[in-house]
User: Which sequence fits this backbone?
């Protein structure tokens, strides 16, 4: 049996509690782990810069010589979605175009028919949200487009319902075009999502089969009861890649040693710890070994398998520290 390892020094209970408080605060604030590369961050920023530059240049050229606004501030928020999250549900063309145009029309109607400005603004945003829900074109920045129709300058009010065409409609069309062009050279960013769906996952290994289908995931998204900025296709890809990683993440055959303890890395009732109690002279992947379950679901059981099968079962080596099993950090 392996000797017990002393607890790490210099890490007190107060340190642990402080770390837990920080994790809780981060979870409450919605601060998630950073999963994007530096390249992705820079491409997103560059896309936003070029996208808004194109909107401003083209729309100002169209309105040259006329006293008309050429850029709506809410396009900046749309650019963030189109270039930082091009595959998001709220970033797709119908969401962007439909959301902005519908909100512009509703905003103008509220500005014209409701004389009390605060109420007109509130109605514009509330009705926009309801309309986008029913028309399946939810796009958060559109709320700003509705507010501009209410609080905008005399130039905006003079446009009437034409505000939905120019500047809003033209702004959106140029921004969508730039999103398609600037994201296309990068296969993993291609926009809209339809151009990306048929690409293979970024791996050379076959994706394992799963009992969950796209219909199952779509059903789950529908019954969550609130909007989630992810499509069923994206969720399926995430699930399959995670499952593939889980199946491939196991110990090398050469690291399995007689007398040592290993865990399958699962949780709850499926968690288990095995000890290698005997092995044959053949130390290759096909060599046989005997193990016994010492904790969890396989406690007090014994079995025989090849070193290869044991390695696929084992996620990592563990040791008993007082009354708890802890992972061996290699």
Assistant:
């Amino acid at each position: 049996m392996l000797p017990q390892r002393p607890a790490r020094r210099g890490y007190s209970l107060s340190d642990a509690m402080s770390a837990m408080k920080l994790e809780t605060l981060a979870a409450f604030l919605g601060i998630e782990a950073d999963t994007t590369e530096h390249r992705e961050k820079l491409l997103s920023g560059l896309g936003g810069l070029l996208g808004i530059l194109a909107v401003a240049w083209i729309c100002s050229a169209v309105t040259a010589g006329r006293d008309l606004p050429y850029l709506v501030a809410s396009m900046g928020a749309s650019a963030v979605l189109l270039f930082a999250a091009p595959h998001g549900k709220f970033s797709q063309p119908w969401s962007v175009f439909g959301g902005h145009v519908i909100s512009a029309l509703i905003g103008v109607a509220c500005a014209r028919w409701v004389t009390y400005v605060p109420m007109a603004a509130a109605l514009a945003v509330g009705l926009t949200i309801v309309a986008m829900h029913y028309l399946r074109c939810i796009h958060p920045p559109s709320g700003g487009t509705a507010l501009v129709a209410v609080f905008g300058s005399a130039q905006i009010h003079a446009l009437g319902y034409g505000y939905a065409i120019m500047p809003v409609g033209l702004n959106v069309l140029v921004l969508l075009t730039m999103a398609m062009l600037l994201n296309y050279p990068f296969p993993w960013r291609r926009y809209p999502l339809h151009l990306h769906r048929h690409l293979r996952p970024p791996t050379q290994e076959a994706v394992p089969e799963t009992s969950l289908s796209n219909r199952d995931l779509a059903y789950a998204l529908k019954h969550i009861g609130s909007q989630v900025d992810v499509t069923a296709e994206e969720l399926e890809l995430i699930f399959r890649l995670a499952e593939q990683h889980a199946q491939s993440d196991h110990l090398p055959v050469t690291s399995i040693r007689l007398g040592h303890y290993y865990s399958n890395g699962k949780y709850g009732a499926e968690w288990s710890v095995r000890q290698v109690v005997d092995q044959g002279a053949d130390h290759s992947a096909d060599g046989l070994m005997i193990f016994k379950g010492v904790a969890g679901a396989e406690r007090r059981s014994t079995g025989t398998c090849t070193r290869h099968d044991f390695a696929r079962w084992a996620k990592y080596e563990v040791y008993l520290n007082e009354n708890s099993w802890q992972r061996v950090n290699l």
